[in-house]
Amino acid sequence: MRTHIQPSAAPPAIRLAALAGLAALGGCATGPGSNPADPLEPLNRVTWRVNDAVDRTVAQPVARGYNRVVPSPIRTGIANFFANLGDVPVMFNNFAQLRLMDGMSDLMRVAVNSTFGLLGFLDIATPAGIPKHNQDFGLTLAHYGVASGPYLVLPLFGPSTFRDAAGFGADQFVTPVNYARPAVRNSLWGINFVSERARYLNATNLLEQAALDKYLFVRDAWLAQRQSKIEEEQPRALPDYEADQKSNATGGGTAGDRPAGKNK
Which helix (H) or strand (E) is 152 found in, with range? Predict the structure, then answer.
């Protein structure tokens, strides 16, 4: 389960609901079969329908009951606790990508929240100015040029790709919950599932209202979100000011100064 633990490891219903808001902002998905990233669409749709049935019959009713019974401050503390655990694999992935400052920041978050934040139930780090990052091993693989492969809907875990599914498996080796005794580990997985699902019930309602084809809606939003995350972390080349100055000196100007229709 990806906590906040991580987004790609979150249960399917959780990520689908969260993506509904993104998809609503990004526009409707295109027609069936239009995305070459999804050659396994028939199989993915079968898995989607199973996941959706489990979400409707099990996850959503339990999440609604959780919101009714558990007071809001306790729900916030539980969410903070799992978010703190999720910062551990985030830290390892930042170090793996040689983002040393981000990795040290993640280490500080875990240390501060685990001690002064009472095992993470209180988020002390964020008000203290220690930012939260979002990394996973799928992004680490992308950082080193590994192609995503086809879109893949995982049973119980929802949207992914071949690369991100492999990354999710690797993240489990550094997720602290997985080193607890089986009874404790399974209980924590269940609590985290319910906690996260409860947070996105309203987003699920948005998905129901906005999408004619929920499968396409979530697929396109999820792929766009992952691509955006990869692109925003790629280094950007600085402008070649020396070349611009030489061009200006010869009267050529910059490309932006040329009249429309004159560009070659």
Answer: strand 151-154
